[in-house]
Design brief:
Blueprint (H helix, E strand, L loop, with lengths): L3 H10 L5 H35 L3 H50 L9 H14 L1 H6 L1 H19 L3 H49 L1 H6 L3 H53 L5 H22 L1 H4 L1 H15 L18 E12 L2 E12 L3 E5 L6 H8 L7 E6 L2 E2 L5 H7 E4 L10 H5 L8 H10 L3 H5 L18 H14 L4 E5 L7 H13 L5 E5 L3 H4 L4 E6 L2 E6 L10
Parallel strand pairs: 3-8, 3-9, 6-7, 7-8
Antiparallel strand pairs: 1-2, 1-4, 4-5, 9-10
Length: 565
């Protein structure tokens, strides 16, 4: 696991383009702390001057300086917060965009199994936690260093011994204590973030699948899982909170001890005549006034741990490599003619191969079915045709070109996939259908709706295709979502269409209507259909069956074509 120093360095590098803003924040912060301590020192000197000389010019000068310092402090404090948060939220915006881009590159294969709730937790809560680092950590550390040097120099004019003591106490509060306490909160904070991601994933999964759970009377078991996850999260948060509170108490105690130690030393020097009483009091006042700049930093070693835990989770996504990196400079194709798999083998683990020397040819204009039991490798085969995965052995080619040499954007322009999981965006029905082709004409969208038998869905709402769907299509059935997925791939304009269980949530009558429409309006497209349903096979020119022994092929000729029953 990346240590705290490396995490901090990496986070700091992300704000490099905004260094000018950070310098302004640090300058304002340093100036406002100096104004605070200088104001207190001059106020103390004004009191001693008044006590000894009355309301003379020196007393009035000290009092005026104190008033000016106090007023300036307010403006400078505002400037520090303004520049800090301007920089922080700009960096958070950039990090969020980088995280979205990383997830896009990792999808779909590298994102499987991570849990939607966990990813949402990373994108929203974890990134928001970084605000503590960017707005409340970097400039306070710089401010503390500058304040230490200047305050020690000022105190040195009153007493070199007190200046040395101040530097030592500043170092203890600002460096030694935070470094010593940080490891005590690191593990609990990381565990709390992970437990929160797990709980969010379970909650989203349960909400999205509530109707299914209710149907199978599985709500009780799901509630037990949620209860267990909540208990784990509560325990992890409690452990993290106790570690943070314990460390904060140690920091507060150390600050009070520093004040006491400096006060005793000041009194001792003044009582022995080494330093004037007024000077000792002024030095003590300046030290006390400067401490807020250091106490806030001393607590960072503890309070920053949840932020570092969040950063580690973000960096884990940013650093993860795509299962198959995009080919951005490969060969171009602008149509689909043929896809050939030759002796293709693939395994997720070396001792459990999924495909063994599989051979398949997909010719333009054909309808091909892929069948087989669960776990036989049907979806994996589709992933390789989409180049979500690369084969371990063998060769896959499109239009005679090895698939690895084809530019990814060009490959995806001629093929598309209707997967088993259909996500519905909180946008209009029209936009949901045109998600793969924003330039799709109204005629193409209408034809896609007709082929996917979406007429009843469109007619359900007065605004038809312009109706804005709820989050993930909560008002739609699973079968209606699948029909939207079919309309999407048809509206995309791709010539090779891959279907992964396209009608699994439809009854036989609806399935028959849609399959008949797909064949009738094929218009030269090529269909590759993964399905368990035997009724779909009657619409196919060829059937490839995946079993433990490999991939077998059955072809129907003109005399025994069963495509239409």
């Amino acid at each position: 696991m990346m240590n705290d120093l490396n995490v901090a360095k990496r986070m700091a590098r992300m704000m490099k383009p905004l260094m000018a803003t950070e310098i302004k924040a640090a300058a304002c912060g340093s100036a406002q702390h100096l104004c605070a301590s200088t104001g207190l020192v001059t106020a103390v000197l004004a009191l001693f001057s008044y006590a000894s000389s009355g309301n003379d010019a020196m007393t009035r000068a000290y009092a005026a300086a104190a008033a000016v310092m106090i007023l300036l402090r307010g403006f400078l404090a505002y400037g520090e917060q303004l520049f800090n948060h301007d920089m922080a939220f700009t960096v958070l915006r950039d990090i969020r965009m980088r995280a979205f881009d990383a997830m896009r590159e990792l999808a779909p294969t590298a994102m499987r199994g991570k849990g939607r709730g966990n990813l949402v937790s990373v994108l929203m809560q974890d990134i928001e936690l970084l605000e503590i680092f960017y707005a409340h950590t970097l400039s306070p550390m710089v401010i503390a260093a500058i304040t230490a040097l200047i305050e020690s120099a000022v105190i040195a004019t009153l007493s070199p011994w007190l200046a040395i003591a101040a530097l030592v106490l500043y170092a203890v509060i600002d460096a030694i204590i935070p470094l010593a306490l940080a490891p005590l909160a690191q593990g609990p904070s990381m565990q709390a973030r992970d437990m929160q991601g797990e709980a969010h994933s379970l909650i989203l999964e349960s909400v999205d699948g509530r109707s299914t759970l209710d149907f199978f009377e599985a709500l009780g078991a799901t509630e037990s899982r949620l209860d267990a996850a909540t208990r784990r999260l509560t325990h992890a948060c409690a452990v993290s909170r106790r570690a943070i509170e314990r460390n904060a108490e140690i920091s507060r105690t150390a600050a009070l001890a520093a004040i006491g130690a400096f006060g005793i030393l000041s009194y001792a020097l003044a009582s022995r005549g080494v330093i004037a009483t007024g000077a000792a009091a002024a030095a003590f006042a300046g030290f006390v006034a400067s401490l807020p700049a250091f106490v806030s930093v001393s607590r960072l070693g503890t309070y920053i741990q949840p932020t570092f835990a969040a950063a580690r989770r973000i960096f884990a996504i940013l650093d993860e490599k795509p299962t198959v990196p995009d080919n951005e400079n490969g060969e171009l194709i602008d149509d689909f003619h043929e896809a050939v798999m030759t002796d293709v083998s693939f395994a997720y683990t070396p001792d459990a191969p999924v495909l063994r020397a599989a051979n398949m040819t997909v010719v333009s204009g054909r309808v091909i079915a892929i069948s087989g039991p669960n776990g036989a490798g049907k979806s994996t085969l589709i992933d390789m045709l989409m180049r979500f995965r690369d084969c371990d052995d063998g060769r896959i080619s499109f239009n005679g070109i090895p698939i690895r040499r084809i530019r990814t954007s060009a490959l995806r322009s001629v093929e598309t996939l209707a997967s088993q999981d259909t996500y519905i965006f909180s946008s209009s029905l029209r936009d949901n259908i045109a998600v793969a082709n924003r330039q799709a004409s109204s005629e193409r969208i209408q034809e896609a709706c007709e082929t996917a038998d979406l007429g009843d869905v469109v007619a359900r709402w007065p605004d038809g295709l312009d109706h804005v769907l709820q989050e993930n299509g909560r008002e739609l059935s699973d079968g209606e979502k699948q029909r939207i997925a079919i309309a999407r791939v048809l509206a995309s304009g791709a010539r090779l269409v891959l279907f992964d269980e396209p009608t699994s949530n439809m009854d036989a009558l609806l399935e028959g209507r849609i399959m008949h429409a797909l064949i009738e309006k094929q218009n030269g497209r090529t269909y590759v259909i993964v399905s368990h349903r035997k009724a779909i096979l009657q619409y196919c020119d060829e059937i490839y069956t995946l079993t433990g022994a490999g991939l077998s092929r059955q072809t129907f000729g003109p005399d025994d074509d069963i495509r239409h029953g």
